[in-house]
Amino acid sequence: MPNIRGFNYLSSGSTKRGPRRRARSLAMRGGMNGLARAHSVGREGGMTGQAEHERERKGKITKGQDQVLPVTLDHCVIHVSNWERGNAFYQEVMGADLVNHATGWAYRFGGTQLNVHGPGLDPAPVARLPVQPGNSDLCFEWHGPIEAALAHLARCNVRVELGPVARFGAKGQGVSIYFRDPDGTLLEFISYRDPQT
Fold first, then answer.
1. What domains lie within the chain, and their CATH numbers?
2. Structure pTM?
């Protein structure tokens, strides 16, 4: 078990302290977070196997701020060398909605999108090392079994470079396959779906 401060203390198998004394000791060692964990352990007598499995699957999260900030990812940028080829790939293979706006194209996936740099554009500002065709690395969630993603890429004549392999994403443990867009940008489909469902 990972050595999370305060948790091993109650998981060590000691039988000399009751739940209240153990909770006080854990709260002193872990602050308010420790107190919350202590109340949970005091009620249940320890982590259940399911809870421990969930923690291992999703990873230990260290919050960035004590106060939750109103921030989510809106868009990021890729670069294509050919508009027609890039648009066709991201629409047909990736399932993007093509958005034609005043300064070019964007590839939209629900509530997030890729802003696209390409021929004829002179965007500003840009990163210190501007995005170039083929130098991005992006992962998309495939909402279904990874076998369906493999079949989809086969139908689109897109070669799978690696996978299926176990990977860790925003929702925890998943299974991924890797492939590339026409410029060489590395793309990934990750599935969190249990293969048996």
1. 7-58 (no CATH), 75-191 (3.10.180.10)
2. 0.69
**Lookup: tokens for 66:** 């004590």
Torsion sign, CA atoms 114, 119, 124, 128: positive
pLDDT in tens, 138-182: 999 999 999 999 999 999 999 999 999 999 999 999 999 999 999
* φ, ψ of residue 151 in degrees (nearest 5): -65, -40
Catalytic residue among 84, 92, 147, 188: 188
pLDDT at 4: 34
188 is catalytic: yes
> How far is the C-alpha of 99 from the C-alpha of 114, rounded, in Å?
10
